[in-house]
Amino acid sequence: MDTLLEPLQYAFFQKGLLVAGLSGALLGLIGVYIVLRGMSYIGHGLSHSIFGGFAAAQLFAANFYMLGAGLWGIASALAITSVTKRSRLGADAAIGVITTASFALGVALFAKFGSSGPSFENALFGSILGISAQQILGLVAVSVLTAAFVFLRYRALLFSTFDPEVAAVSGVNVSRIEAMLMIVLSLAILATLTVIGVTLVAAMLVIPAVIARMLTDSFGRMLGYSTAIGLACGLIGMYLSYYAGVPSGTMIVLVGASLFVIVLAFTGGRGLRRSADLDAHTDASALAPVAR
Amino acid sequence: MTGIGVGPELISLDGVVAGYTHHPVLTDVTFHVHEDQFTGIVGPSGAGKTTLLRLLLGTLAPMAGTITKDPALRMAYVPQLETVSWNFPVTVRECVLMSRRARNQLPWASRAEKASVGDVLERLGIGDLADRHIRELSGGQQQRMFLARALLRQPQIMLLDEPTSGVDVSTRHDVLHLLADLHEEGVAIVLTTHDLNGMAAHLPHLVCVNERIVASGSPADVMTPDVLEQTFGARMEVVEHLGMRIVVDEGPHRSAMRETG
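ok -> structure tokens follow
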């Protein structure tokens, strides 16, 4: 019990626990749609792309770098959606070029000009220590926005994830829903970037959702389980990070990976069968109508 | 109802050219769907059947020509079974509920919506499967579930892409009877099929497609060796059996024998 209570006497840890739990839950919730749409690689690319905006925005608008990085992230998300749908170059290749170029730009800017906000290492691997009250408010706002989006657009999100073509015929504005999802995703990545770290955000978008899929065949329950698993990973990872003295993002992801192995061992073949199609890419050929 | 379409027009395609990434698949298509129509679109793979369906649905914009339809037209679409992941985490009931009216976006269906889903599942004979995961259904049951999802929209026109592909004979008969009943109730039906004897021969109106509309009319009008050769690029024999046209594929061996005399 003392092990659990001892770190709570520090204000930074209380703040960190709140932020890590919320970040895990937020990424777990939005990750369900990313995983079921086969967009895991987009989440990975987007987090790297946002890193470039994060570095650039600090140079040009030091006081508003989160806003600048947010706009960069939204622009990247919409560009990725557009490229995925329209590019005649392979979608993976096109996204790889856009996002890694943005990431490289971020590294170059950090190396040349340094940072007025989080350090290079903290941005890459996450750290709770440097998080400001403004960033906590931003995380809470993005979490509320994401939950409201999922709740109020439940049918359209579910239908367009399962069967976008029939959804479009049935009155769902699929393009608008996809654009909104990408905007919410980029805001979620931005809000959790300094907690989990840019290199590890993509893992937390995928791991809770995959574990949840292994546990249930119901979409509603998958949303709940994934959010709860993300929350648990955040809280447990934060404690382990405190005791092990390693960055919070690293521990949060390691807890998620360990949970994955445990659930895999318990669910066995049934869990594998349930999660069998989750690696299907939503590439250009899948999104654009090609059948004749 | 005759099924050949003489009532008010629901969708009109005039001089339409359509395709993908600047490559036309269909050229100069003029095709009108009427309120009382029951049409099968037939043609070989790659002929443009699904493209024509997508033009009617409005999910593909034409490269040239005009498409006219009432924006308030209630359409329902039944895609091919392989277009979705059957491992997606939804039950039959959840899947059918996806097509409920757009004004209710919340996670929970209303009592009336649940009752409608129950009725439509019973009508299709899969009422007892409502809580099953969709992966556990047979091909025929999956097709019925898609039909249930389409029916929940109470459509004026239903478009189906190869509705009897991959299903057994019994399900094919059931699907044909259901579509005939819906047509009697006033729903216009347009479907694609490559099954000439099992499906097309039973429909009141056919459109033969091969990158353009080759012919249009009743099976007696279009299921002729000449039209079928123009459509499929292969010679076929047509015989009459109990007043129905039956197509016999001559096969390469017999064609070669005929050509050599």
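Residues 281-292 of chain A have pLDDT under 50 and may be disordered.
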